[in-house]
Amino acid sequence: MGFIIRKNDPKDARLKWLEITPKGRQVLKSISEEKELNMKKYLKKYSDDEKSDILSVMKGILKSG
After folding, report:
1. Tens of pLDDT, residues 9-64
2. In degrees rounded to 5, what are phi and psi of residue 10?
3. 15: which of 4, 22, 45, 52 lies 20 to 30 Å off by Cα?
4. What residues does 4 pair with on adjacent strands?
């Protein structure tokens, strides 16, 4: 689909390298922007203190995983 390029490692034929294409980078950027817009939409009803509490909980979840 043109998102990545698969290349052989010149020193070891068993290894393959994956490189993200400009098209792939643009898709990742779009996904990131969409995710940020969604987060802002869902969190706009919360106060700054509540957002801080949510962030602390999320950080705790990520650390325990």
Report:
1. 999 999 999 999 999 999 999 999 999 999 999 999 999 999 999 999 999 999 98
2. -65, -20
3. 22
4. 20
Closest CA to 6 of 16, 15, 14: 16
CB 3 within 8 A of CB 27: yes
> Which letter, b or e, does each residue of 51-63 get, where b requires 16 or more Cβ atoms within 10 Å of its Cβ?
eeeeeeeeeeeee
Number of residues that this document lists for the chain? 65
CA atoms within 13 A on the CB side of 14: 0
Fill in the amino acid letter for 47. Answer: S
pTM of the predicted structure, to 2 decimals = 0.60
Domain residue spans of the chain: 4-64
